[in-house]
Amino acid sequence: MKPVLSQPPHVDWLTGAFSRTPLLRKTTRLADLPGVFADHSGWQQADPQQIVYDVEMLDTLSGSGELFTGVTHLYPGKVGNEYFMTRGHFHALREQGEVYFGLRGTGLLLLQDEQGEMHLEPVVAGSVHIIPGYTAHRLINTGTEILSALAVWSSTAGHDYAALAGGFAWRVVEENRQVQVREVQNG
User: Fold this and answer.
1) 134 and 155 in contact (C-beta within 8 Å)?
2) Which parts of the sequence belong to the Glucose-6-phosphate isomerase prokaryote domain (predicted)?
């Protein structure tokens, strides 16, 4: 039997663009993020069609043992003084982890476990982030250019957005031209 040489997909490490099609693409706009930003009035007054982030995924098999690969392109911007961010989620199968690779831009990866313990990791070109199971995660763009991160995760992991209906315990904002982290005050 003669081996078959097939060309795998490529990613441009500077832009996060995939060279292979077909790709699956999902665009998230401000209108898709009610309750995510602290400044509800600022969110209502912003252009609801403003793109906050795009996700491009390789169209691959799903099922037990399969992996998804995608790139999130998170645009720069703010609602009020809070930086643009992804919705953030736990995995539906909580034990499933994920790996992020920073490709371009600057930002933060906000991690929160089920007990509410949190930490932040800077995301820059070349950074590698191991997101353990039982951990919610959110990308935040604190820079002036697109923040792109490649992600690899189990195709069976799923997303659980409802578990974070009350939001993350920290907000990342700009105050006096500086990135600041603020604990959410309840009550």
Assistant:
1) no
2) 29-184
77-97 burial: b if 16+ Cβ within 10 Å, else e: bbbbebbbbbbbbbbeeeebb
Q: All domains of the chain, ordered by start, with CATH?
A: 23-183 (2.60.120.10)
Residues contacting 158, CB < 8 A, separation 6+: 91, 92, 93
Instruction: Report which of 14, 155, 140, 13 is spatially closest to residue 98, judged by C-alpha positions.
Output: 155
What phi and psi values does residue 121 have, to the nearest 5 degrees?
A: -130, 135
Nearest to 52 by CA among 24, 74, 80: 74
pLDDT at 187 over 50: no
User: Which of 55-64, 95-104, 130-139, 142-151 has the lowest average pLDDT?
Assistant: 55-64
- Per-chain mean pLDDT for the chain: 94
Half-sphere exposure of 166 (CA within 13 A, CB side): 8
Average pLDDT score over residue span 59-71: 93
Q: Taking residues 146-168, what's their average pLDDT?
A: 93
Residues 6 or more apart whose Cβ sits within 8 Å of residue 12: 18, 19
**Which residues are CB-contacts of 13 (< 8 A; sequence separation ≥ 6)?**
103, 125
